[in-house]
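Subject: Sanity check before I submit

Could someone independently write out the structure tokens for this chain? I want to compare against mine line by line before I put it in a report. The sequence has 359 residues.
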Amino acid sequence: MPSRLWLSAESWDFGTKFQGEPADFTIEIRNIGAGPLQFSLKTSCGCTAITQLTQAIRLTGHQYQYQLDPGKSDTLKISYNTNKNSPNVSQSITLTTNDPEKPSVNIAVSGKIAQLYEPVGEEASNGTRIFFTKIGRDEKETKSLTLRNSSGEPVTLTLKPQEGPFDVTLEEIKPGFEYKVTATTRPPLRNGSNMMDVNLETSHERMRTLHVQLNAFVQPRVQLNRTSLAVSSAVVKPFKQRVRVQYKLERPLNITGFEATHPGISAELLPPNTAAARGAAGYGFYDIEVTLPPASELPKTGGTLTILTDDDDPEYQKLEVKVIVVNRANTGGMTGNAAPPQAESPLTGTSAPLGGGGN
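---
Independent answer below. Compare away.
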């Protein structure tokens, strides 16, 4: 006898919620057939979540995730993350079953997300986020974001004290209706992202906290385009790879030598190639050709090549490149011949930063 799916609802409109306000819903799922009901659940985005079912049998190594025996039921507890910036929500939950009459059911999730305070001015394009880009570790920079009340009734904001890589102030422009958040970086910053979530307490009953996200991205002054080199177990003779060291021209450095943990790992500084540096304004670079031995000559733990520089910062005086042994038949270019000169293109945002620093 076939299974039969019954749902207490096949859609959920949570109405209008303020950003950050909870949005929850429950749907009963029941097997009203004579055979076991097997089903799987899949959401259309990470913003829609379903808590673990408690009555259904969890299936493993099966086409479906769950099973409800005849006459049994369970509850789908659904929640939507209203912190998302999209004002109009249109998502779904797909229920796939072994019910011949309802092999697939889409549960629609809809609603609207309202902002209690909306960003205005030059920084408004980033929403309630303030970004600091192209900033140095020791630089102090200030940016502001103006927030304007969109609820039509006065709502006061209060800055909750926090520790982080920024000094933050809150200025009341028009009491209950307009405020300005000002953030100043607090050096020394660390390489990469320096983030902080500013909490603003409100007098509104439905939305007690507003969030403003701060992010200062520090481009490392010295960086490698590759912090590791892989040696395939299929490699049977020495081969070559290239590594690039890039540095800011305002603080130049020199490559003074190399150290390796294995005699088969060696490196040579290549002559400058000015054509390859186009597009890397404000940066200089060194290309290094690395010779790697076959995997059979390396220990399982691989090895390390250390690039030595004369930089005045200890963080950049020894730049490490890990040599890793991998067990796969072939990794493009690792057939014993020289690999493609990947370092021939200028470094981009994918370059690996060196060290941490900062707080």
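---
OP: Matches mine. For the report I'm noting this point. The CA atoms of residues 48 and 80 lie 5 Å apart.
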